[in-house]
Amino acid sequence: MPIKVSDILNRPHFKRATVIAGQQGLTSKIRWVHVMEVTQIGKLLSGSELILSTGVGWKDQNNTGLSFLQQLIDKKASGLCVELGTYINIIPQSMIKLAEANDFPLIVFQGEVRFIDITQDLNGLLMETHYKMMADLESFSNKLNHLLLSTDSFHKILRLFSKFINSQVAYVRVEGEIDIYPNVSDSEIMSLKDKITECVQNENANTGRKINNQPIKAMGHKFADLVVINSNEEWTEFDSLILDRTATALAQEQLRALYIEEKRKQQEVDWIQKWLNGEHSREEINRYLSAVNPNLDVNGCIVCMCQLEKLDNQLDFTFYSMVFNSVFEQKGFFSLLLFERNQIVFALVNKRNKCNWKERLEDAVTQIRNTKLLNEIFERAVYGVGKMVDQVDQLKESYITAEQTISINQKVGRQSISFYDDLHIYRYLYLLDESNNLQNLVSDYLGSILEFDANNNSQMFETLKIFLEVNGSKKEAASRLFIVRQTLYHRLNKLYELLGEDFMQPEKRLVIELAVYTYAFLHQEN
């Protein structure tokens, strides 16, 4: 426990000391003892110092003494001890009132005292207390290290921590699950839940009062919060150090558990590949998922494919899998990974409502791209997301559409993440491209336009594209093209000449619009 002003009153050198003001401030902590006779403090103090003075700097000058005391209060000193008899015989009433109003301990010695003996005694006591705290901290750290090498270390660490600080502690996972140590009844858990949730939501809740928390983080990601619910004891610096050491040990335990889990998953690559290829029955898949995650609630499946510029075979895939799975878990997805060529395939099982699955998946990709500990190749990766399927045995369809999304993305412009559901007409163009008929479509319906632009350095293709986009509105087309109406009319006449007078008729217009998108698709123009 830290040394307080009230503690030093029991020391031998304070037998003749009297507290004349600031009784309510006797609980103030003392970090150091300092003799001070100057009246302008400036930057001489850092806070929590107990000041010893003979009053020589402000004797017979009430205003100077009052200013000196106000500076001590402003600097958050622990208290002021004054020797009476040598230079001053009485403390001015104005100083007593100021100290009392600010709960600032004002202590007097009746007669001469040896400040050197007081400072030696108290500073020695402070150093002894600090040494004892560091020794206890080292002992606690050694116990944590021993527990990390044992079985069931997670629960043992939490029980040790709770016993050591003599307080109720809670381990709150990011998914919302709460473990309480020591165990309490269900009714008591409910009464604590609101208090714990408020603390977790506010990471700056370490107010030194009734509740404190420390996020459990590793590799830049938060796994849980360690929450301490104090009973009556005041939160101390030692408690904060113990909390920090425990949080670090729990993070190490979490990493070890995740690493072991990812090693196991790496051995299951063959099974995942067969799942993607549609070689497992629905019963086999459900049985497997129930074995690896008994509480998994399947609400649709998706394949997300990560296209890399180059996949280094020397990378620690287990380490990266730990990061990826942690991120997806926080966003409501259970994930299984497969590394192949320059791609990473994420087989994702949606655990939450389907209505916002795209937003959650985008958030997960953004978090992966912003993780500094990941190799920079992941910052430049392109993600293609297949269609969501309802049943686990339909994942092959999502896998195929994810591959198509990556291919289309490379054609029409590299986006950081693309969803198959949002590609619309490009999905149709991709299928036509597979049959090698797209170039014929462009030649048949846009050949004359493209040839005219090439020979005359004109903008007929752009004019056609904009005119179709605005549904034939001449006013809006001229505005979008930044030309006057007369120029637009001239270009439209040329379009009628090159494409025919009926090019805006529904059936012909539809195929011309398709040809325009096809041209962009083939020439990698967004």
UniProtKB/TrEMBL annotation:
Signal peptide: none annotated. Residues 7-123 form the Purine catabolism PurC-like domain. Residues 461-516 form the PucR C-terminal helix-turn-helix domain. InterPro entries: CdaR-like_regulators (IPR051448), PucR_C-HTH_dom (IPR025736), PucR_C-HTH_sf (IPR042070), PucR_dom (IPR012914). This is PucR family transcriptional regulator. It comes from Terrihalobacillus insolitus.
